[in-house]
Amino acid sequence: MFDIFTTISEREAQNLNAVTLAFVGDAVYSLYVREKLVISTTFSTGMLQKLTSGEVSAHGQSELLERLAPKFTQTEADIFRRGRNAKKPTRSKNATVAEYNKSTGFEAVLGYLYLTGQYKRISQLLSEE
Q1: Closest CA to 83 of 38, 26, 129
Q2: Comparing C-alpha atoms, which of 75, 100, 58 is closest to residue 9?
Q3: Cβ partners under 8 Å of residue 125, min gap 6
Q4: Cβ distance 61 to 103 under 8 Å?
Q5: What angle do CA 55, 56, 61 make, to 5 degrees?
Q6: Quick one: CA torsion of 66, 67, 68, 69, rounded to 10 degrees?
Q7: 43, 51 in Cβ contact below 8 A?
Q8: Would you state the torsion angle of the CA atoms of residues 118, 9, 61, 72, taken in this order, to the nearest 10 degrees?
Q9: Which of 30, 51, 73, 112 has CA atoms 20 to 30 A from the CA of 121?
Q10: Long-range contacts for 93-100 (Cβ within 8 Å, ≥24 apart)?
Q11: How far apart are CA 113 and CA 95, in angstroms?
């Protein structure tokens, strides 16, 4: 049976495709932003969706990354570079190529940390925002 908090080893996570890590990281960041907004505001779901979209966009993530990247460990920086430089199957409609590449790298780091069970590290990084 599958458990939502199943983890894999760091080696297994490092062997995953960076875009696959970003796929998971996108969901992790989206859930983080949604929870933060629901707990800290009383906005309607429409407003929550609008605010979430702004934060989880490639542009929003790229701005956040500028503050977080200097705090990355060597492993996180390596995962970020792999995600940033990976060939992506899609293009962003509302962000520059550089922003989209940075956001993919950021999401890859979150995906790596989540899959390896490093939830405190995710919290530590995201609380810096």
Answers
A1: 26
A2: 75
A3: 68, 71, 109, 113
A4: yes
A5: 80
A6: 40
A7: yes
A8: 70
A9: 51
A10: 94/57, 94/58, 94/59, 95/57, 95/58, 95/59, 95/62, 98/62, 99/58, 99/59, 99/61, 99/62, 100/58
A11: 25
Q: Round to whole Å and give the CA distance between 124 and 129.
A: 10
Kindly state the greatest CA–CA separation across the chain. Answer: 42
The predicted-structure confidence for 18-51, as pLDDT tens digits, reads as follows 999 999 999 999 999 999 999 999 999 999 999 9
Paired tokens of 37:
């907004």
Tokens of 43: 């906005």
The amino acid sitting at 50 is K
Copy the structure tokens of residue 113. Answer: 């940390």
Q: What would the pLDDT profile of 65-103 be if each residue is shown by its tens digit?
A: 999 999 999 999 999 999 999 987 777 777 888 898 999
* CA pair distance 91, 109, nearest whole angstrom: 20
The residues annotated as belonging to the active site are 26
